[in-house]
Design a protein that fits this description.
heterodimer, A: about 350 residues, mainly alpha, ABC transporter involved in vitamin B12 uptake, BtuC, two-stranded antiparallel sheet, about 5% strand, disordered C terminus, B: about 525 residues, alpha/beta, Rossmann fold, 23 strands, disordered N terminus
């Protein structure tokens, strides 16, 4: 006995539009069940995870800060995913961006470098992330290596490199042997948005990325090229679009945006180099990209929703003594439900028994 | 089988040499809508007989084999196995009877070893037993294979041996081979023939599908020739001339050929010279020293049985695959061999590939987006990187209007169109650009008669307006109808271009089966 997926001739546009919402509802129900099995009340968990952050101004601002890297990375990933390329290593590109930008901040520490430093740091972050993203792209176009594996493996390389830097060369000599760098000087820190306490201007980068991407994907030949490459690779070749060049470009964009997110997080939020600068933004952004349907506005909304789970997760740790792993599990659950819902919109499942099988 | 023909008194169709048949097909027909893919086919094989099944594309060979292997059910007729009527509802049932099949395209897991690939097909047996028997069979039949080698390290010939061994593991009494030498080197083919001869001597019947006369003559003493779904002859290929067999395969109604006066007196728009390319993939064909030219105002046709290098030639002409030298492909006087498809479009060329969905058009995209697909480099649709989608929609509507494309809605996804309508769209999309050169691969493959007529008319009209048109087609009638000059492609080699009126069907048939010298001789005999 097995389950076959039969393509639906006319997938319902209503079902397609509602699929992400349905996926979220299912994910909440499953998560509620898990919380109940852990011996806590699902109702109070829902309150702590979702309702409290949404009603507390401090939490709402924290949500914006958490949503910034998620949106920036997911926007970058949407270029790859639209072209049918699976960049799973945004986490590593985020880290390398953070490292590249921090290198400038630490090199100029104590030398009063002037206003060029912040832009240069952002640029270095983008270049660092782009360079890290270029490795799997190069390996794919040159040797045909699966970008899924190489991009993922490079995450661990980047993380260990950062760990070594924070414990070794970049450790603050006056820091009581803690594995962390000196605190960045204010010239190396992204300023807050006036009137929005604790919210750094990285949020603006995210909004710009959404706006530019909406135009690029919707109106330009480059956007058309990505869609065609993802939907019908042979037709893309017939259209004259070189698949290798497409691969390199989207990985550079994706890595660059992840790198920008990395340095914005370090410069605007953490303000120093730590062995660990991300609670898994690069992976959660994959969920954000799919929950947002690879559409820039959808990603904006999905980024806020997933940021909420980070805030709620922190609250739940304190208030309900629920492990933070539960939050990560929930984010994975959301991705699973979104992909399942999308599959069910396009395909009808059918149970096939052995007797009825025909080869 | 649902409706079996009433039993006739004769127990079975006698085989070619009169011995009792192992398997016989009687009056087998298969209908798809209006198309009769098999029409009352009779066929019989004795144990140990190697029997060839010959025919052009679309003659009904694959349908017949699929019926025999239980993949499709016949509409009428019956199958006798050792004189008893049987029904073969599935490949499992076919294997149960003792029928094995070696397909033209292999189904192997590249990352797994030879033994693992064989064991996968036999889930009920222990792996070690399979591995041991596999080694015995490959030794016993001279099919050299290392059981523990990974498949991706093997050549096409070795991969085919896995398929054959996998088939032999089930101790079949009848083996069907579909164009087995199409992926093999001459040396590998020779080894295959030795194995097949030995199998035949041991009493295994072999049904051998091919269009290569030489190997059929070497292996088989009996051949059944199909044309248009019907058996046109069962004969001894060694006792019949290549001429005779070719004529039977392609028909000999020479009368319908319409003599063309070449309108192509204009300049040469496409010139191909010394174009050679190695095969790109395992099942690919090489191109060997291809030369041709198309002048403004004429239609040049390229005939040939599918899989003889047509797609490779199309890719090399379109620029989807680059030639070795710029001068290999000259478009409108410019050496274009090293230019990509968009650069060739800018030189005035347009292309229609064989596959409508997925190659000529993106299935899930609307017709206006699919217009951008081939127009973006030339039609002023793109300014500073931005696409004028409204203009693309206007062009798409114009194609729909001019070429009578029936659409279910305004700007539907390409896959919503029927084959004929989508083909009209992708041909019309190129013609409306007003190209100097149009290269089209299988322009009317699988489309209804009305659409086919409209498309052929459009191609002729385009040439009449002064464009050069190159048509690659398996449909000989189509080429005789529209082409001014023709050549035949076989095994990646192109015959000389001759005026359509100088070709006979017989000579084309001979070229298709690789009998180039005899084709030339046949034409020399014809009165000029």
């Amino acid at each position: 006995m097995r389950i076959e997926l039969i393509p639906r001739p006319d997938p319902s546009p209503v079902a397609r539009a509602l699929a992400p919402l349905a996926a979220l509802v299912v994910a909440f129900l499953v998560a509620g069940l898990v919380v109940a099995l852990l011996g806590k009340s699902p109702v109070s968990a829902f309150e702590v995870y979702i309702l409290q952050p949404l009603t507390d101004p401090w939490s709402l601002r924290a949500m914006l800060v958490k949503a910034t890297p998620l949106i920036l990375i997911a926007i970058g990933l949407s270029y790859c995913f639209r072209a049918g390329l699976w960049n799973i290593g945004a986490e590593g590109q985020f880290v390398m961006g953070g490292i590249a930008g921090s290198a400038l901040a630490l090199a100029t520490h104590g030398s009063d470098p002037g206003p060029w430093l912040l832009p240069a740091m952002m640029l270095a972050g983008m270049l660092g992330g782009a360079a890290w993203g270029a490795i799997p792209a190069f390996l794919k176009v040159r040797f045909g290596v699966s970008e899924i594996l190489t991009s993922l493996f490079l995450v661990y390389v980047a993380e260990l490199f950062l760990d070594w830097l924070a414990r070794g060369p970049w450790r603050d000599p006056a820091g009581f042997n803690f594995p962390q760098s000196v605190v960045f000087e204010s010239a190396a820190r992204l300023p807050e948005i006036p009137g929005l306490d604790r919210v750094h201007v990285g949020v603006v980068f995210a909004v710009i990325a959404v706006l530019v991407t909406a135009v690029v994907l919707g109106r330009t030949l480059f956007g058309y090229r990505l869609k065609l490459t993802g939907d019908a690779p042979r037709a893309a070749r017939f259209a004259g679009f070189d698949a290798k060049r497409t691969t390199l470009i989207v990985f550079l964009i994706s890595g660059g945006l992840a790198g920008l997110a990395g340095i914005a997080e370090v410069s605007g939020q953490i303000a120093r180099v730590l062995p660990d600068i991300s609670p898994g933004y690069g992976f959660t952004a994959i969920t954000v990209a799919f929950l947002g349907r690879l559409n820039p506005w959808g990603i904006l909304a999905a980024g806020l929703v997933l940021a909420l789970t980070f805030i709620g997760g922190e609250n739940a740790q304190i208030l309900l003594r629920l492990p933070f792993d539960l939050t990560v599990a929930f984010q994975g659950l959301v991705l699973l439900c979104v992909l399942t819902a999308d599959a069910l919109v396009s395909y009808r499942p059918r149970l096939v028994t052995r007797a009825g099988a025909r080869a | 089988m649902a409706d079996v023909a009433p039993a006739s008194p004769a127990a079975s169709v006698p085989t070619a040499d009169g011995t009792p048949a192992l398997v016989s097909l009687r009056g087998v027909s298969k209908r798809y809508g209006d198309l009769l893919a098999n029409d009352g086919v009779d066929l019989a094989l004795a144990p140990g007989e190697i029997h060839a099944l010959l025919g052009e594309n679309g003659a009904g060979k694959s349908t017949l084999v699929k019926i025999l292997y239980g993949v499709i059910e016949p509409t009428a007729g019956e199958i006798l196995w050792e004189g008893r009527p049987v029904s073969i509802p599935s490949p499992v049932a076919a294997r149960g009877l003792g029928i094995g099949m070696v397909f033209q395209h292999f189904s192997l897991f590249e990352e797994m070893t030879v033994a693992e690939n064989v064991a996968v097909a036999l889930p009920e047996r222990a792996f070690d037993a399979v591995r041991t028997e596999l080694a015995e069979i490959s030794r016993g039949w001279g099919l050299a294979l290392e059981p523990d080698r990974a498949v991706w390290t093997l050549s096409a010939g070795e991969r085919q041996r896995i398929e054959i061994v996998r088939c032999l593991m089930q101790k079949p009494r009848l083996i069907v081979l579909d164009e087995p030498t199409s992926v093999l080197t001459p040396q590998e083919s020779e080894r295959l023939f030795e194995t097949l001869t030995r199998l035949s001597e041991a009493g295994t019947a072999i049904l051998y599908i091919s269009h290569k006369l030489e190997e059929v003559r070497r292996l088989c003493r009996a051949a059944t020739i199909l044309r248009g779904g019907k058996v046109v002859a069962t004969l001894d290929p060694r006792a019949s001339s290549a001429r005779e067999i070719a004529a039977l395969m392609v028909g000999s109604e020479v009368g319908e050929v319409r003599a063309h006066l070449s309108k192509g007196t204009g300049e040469e728009v496409l010139r191909v010279e010394g174009l050679s390319l190695p095969p790109e993939a395992l099942h690919g064909k090489p191109l060997v020293d291809v030369a041709l030219s198309v002048r403004a105002g004429e239609v040049v046709g390229i005939a040939g049985v599918a899989g003889n290098g047509q797609s490779e030639l199309f890719a090399a002409l379109s620029g989807e695959r680059l030639a070795s030298y710029a001068g290999d492909v000259v478009v409108a006087g410019t050496g274009a061999g090293r230019l990509g498809i968009d650069a060739r479009r800018r030189l005035g060329a347009a292309f229609v590939p064989e596959e409508r969905l997925g190659h000529a058009a993106a299935p899930s995209h609307g017709l206006s987006d699919n217009t951008v697909l081939s127009h973006h480099a030339t039609s002023g649709l793109v300014k500073a990187g931005f696409v004028a989608f409204a203009e693309a929609a206007r062009i798409a509507r114009s194609v729909v209007g001019h070429f009578d494309v029936r659409t279910p809605s305004d700007d539907p996804a390409a896959r919503k169109l029927s084959g004929g309508n989508l083909q009209k769209f992708v041909v019309g999309r190129e013609i409306l650009r007003g190209p100097k050169l149009l290269v089209v691969d299988q322009p009317t493959w699988g489309v209804d008669a009305g659409a086919a007529r409209l498309i052929r008319q459009a191609l002729v009209d385009l040439a009449a307006k002064g464009a050069a048109v190159l048509v690659i087609s398996q449909d000989l009638d189509e080429l005789f109808e529209i082409a001014d000059r023709m050549a035949v492609i076989s095994d990646g080699r192109l015959s000389p271009l001759r005026p359509a009126s100088a070709w006979t069907r017989e000579a084309i048939g001979l070229e298709m089966i690789g009998a180039h010298d005899e084709a030339g001789a046949a034409l020399a005999r014809e009165p000029a």
